[in-house]
Amino acid sequence: LAYNQIAPFLRFAHLTANQAILDAAASGGARRLHIIDLDAAHGVQWPPLLQAIADRADPAVGPPEVRITGAGPDRDVLLRTGDRLRAFASSLKLPFRFHPLLLPCTAQLAADPATGLDLHPDETLAVNCVLFLHRLRGEGEVATFLKWVKSMNPAVVTIAEKEASSDGCPDDLPRRVAAAMGYYSAVFDALEATAPPGSADRLLVESEVLGREIDAALAAAPAPGRVGEHSWGFEAWASAARAAGLSPRPLSAFAVSQARLLLRLHYPSE
C-alpha cells in the first residue's frame, strides 16, 4: 500500500485496466459484469471501478450487477477484501457479489484452471491479470494459462507486468545484474521525485518490495519451497498473448488522458 501511495506504477496499471473493463462492459451492453481477479489481495483496484460503474448507471434502469471472483493464497485476506468491497458497493447502492477463490499457489491454477469458477453466458467476462503472469513458472505455464483464459471467451483480458527482461540468462549473473540495473535504476529515479531517501514510506518500500524483487531477479534459481518469478520485456508478453489467440486492444482516449493526469500529479515538474 505504501508503494501505491508514493509511486504511480501500480495505480496506473489499476486505473488503465479498469478503464478497459469499463469500455468492454459498455460495448457489450450486458447487465451483469463478472471480473476474475487472479491476484485480488486487498482489492485496492476495485473501489474506483465500482464508483465509476455507479456514476455511469442509467437512472431509468439502475446500475448493472457486478461479480468479482477474487483469487489468492490467503482465505482470511480474501474474506476481508470481500467484506470491504461489499460494504463499499452497498454504499453506492450497486448490486455486488464477491466470491473468494483460494489458490495456494499459481501452479494449481495452471494444473486445474477450472477450479472454483462459475461462469454464466449472460455476463460480460473480464479477466484481470495485473502483476500476475510473472509468477507462473516459465513459458509453458504462461502459454497454458493464457490459452485457458482465451477458452473462456472473455470480453477483455487486462495484463500489466514489469517490463524488465531478465529471463534467458539463468546461469549468467553479469547479464542478470545488468538487466536488473537497467530496470531498477529507472524505478529508483521515479521514487526520487516523490519520496526522499530517508522517509519511512521509502524505506518500507525499499526493504519490503523492491529489495525482495531485486533478490528474486538476481537469483539463479528460486529458494526451496518458492516458485521462481520471471521478467520479460513488452514484446515477450505481447507475443505470449498473441500465441494464445488474444488480440491487443488500443487504449481509449479517456484512458490515455487519465494516465497522463496521474503522471502529472506525481511528477508535476516533468
TrEMBL record:
Region of interest: PFYRE: 125-216
Keywords for the protein's UniProt record, in alphabetical order: Transcription, Transcription regulation
Motif residue range(s): VHIID: 33-37
Region of interest called SAW, as start-end residue ranges on this chain: 219-270
Domain of life, per lineage: Eukaryota
Pfam family, one: GRAS
Family: Belongs to the GRAS family.
Protein name (Swiss-Prot/TrEMBL): Monoculm1B
Organism: Mnesithea lepidura
